[in-house]
Amino acid sequence: MLEAGRIVEGVTGYTTAKVTSLHSLIYDHLLRHFGEEKARAYGEANQAAIEQIAALVQEKHIDCDFARTEAYTYTESEGEVDQIRAEVEAALKLGLPAALTDETPLPFPVKAAVRFDNQAQFHPRKYLLALARDVPGAGSHIFEDTRVVEVADGQPCLVTTEKGTITASAVIIASHFPFDDKALYASRLQSHRSYVLAVRVAGPVPRGMFISTEESSHTVREQPTGDGALLLIGGEGHKSGQGDDTIARYQRLEAWARQRFTVESVDYRWSTQDNRTVDRVPYIGRATPAAKHVYVATGFGGWGMTGSTVAGMLLRDLILGRDNPWATVYDPNRLNLQGVPALVKQGVDTARHFIGDRLPDEGPESIALGEGKVVNTQRGDVAMYKDENGALHCLSPVCAHMGCIVAWNGAEKSWDCPCHGSRYDVEGKVLHGPAVKGLEEIQEG
Ligand SMILES: Cc1cc2nc3c(=O)[nH]c(=O)nc-3n(C[C@H](O)[C@H](O)[C@H](O)COP(=O)(O)OP(=O)(O)OC[C@H]3O[C@@H](n4cnc5c(N)ncnc54)[C@H](O)[C@@H]3O)c2cc1C
Ligand code: FES
Q: What is the domain-level CATH number for residue 369?
């Protein structure tokens, strides 16, 4: 396993870790656009993933706050009740543990909800770090601080890292957004960032896992701690690098939480991002139509706990040459016409960020301490960050992945790319791929 940074410090270290096959509203969509066989395979795969995680927790005695609980997708709007009904009907048809209800453990009324029973939640770092302890040995190794820059298919495959080249009989690219893009994932994946607060509330903390149906959805989940339960509240999502005032997003999320819960304190806050595919089903399988030994697992769309576990089981079978009934629905090289409008939209949006963001008209004096801006100078556009002492840190704003212009993220103090979600720190170092190189430094003056 080759890891650019430290293991389980990527998106998975910041997830809300609901372990469920209830992925917002998905089954009615799958029935209509993929057909019953594939919709059933998707549901079965994700239910099997929950049981796989439960079995590993039990077998390896992993202390990771694993708990069985219910998952709900709810609406507060009368106009969305029909969508909820359709989802329950679709899920029941596929044999999933669904029920229609208008009662939930939430302290505010809902118009309707889908409930899935016997789902689960856990602490992802505790679970994965325990699994990782089993990796070294019997020919398996974990190499941290080892960024991969290129993968060549073959017998063996050649994996080029910043520190040297290794060989492997099969390679799985599981780097969140694939950095190796021979199959044009950049045109088929959209990176989506969202925000989480961990709050303490007065009175009992609602048990269960909740997500709303709104276009910009909110999620709620309880997390036990040694010092009482916290409530994780998420929302305010947007396309990565296009969040504008990201600090205002935390403020709006807190206002949403305070309208619905008696919030006593906001103890933690963070944001992270996940990739969506154009037809909402992850890409798990051979990385390109011609690939022989290179595989990919990406596009979990906010549901990577079961999605990645499905990937583990499915890719194991593909590598060992075994049949797997889930392979077709997850095939990364599928052609699904339903995804075409999203594909076109993604292309237009990306093109806009090669050109449209190079039009700043203010100088460095307009940058506040601790803030960043792309400034038009005589030497061209420069991404400038003014530190707390007033010193300017100047970088090329051209993303090292495919050349879009990065935007300032005030909440995280980072440069984020609006095209495929690469992120850089104020010194230009890669925080998040697909970029494998940093932003170029520009000397002042
Ligand atoms: C706010 C939020 C809440 C979420 N909540 C849930 C939830 O409740 N339930 C759920 O199922 N899912 C949830 N998700 C989705 C889930 O967290 C993700 O789908 C999942 O964590 C993605 O895992 P990953 O392994 O693909 O990416 P990561 O966890 O980011 O792992 C990828 C790793 O690859 C490394 N890497 C990148 N590039 C390279 C390279 N070139 N060379 C070597 N290593 C590299 C990175 O450093 C990183 O460690 C949520 C997502 C968000 C944004
Ligand atoms: S992430 Fe693709 S161009 Fe920046």
A: 2.102.10.10
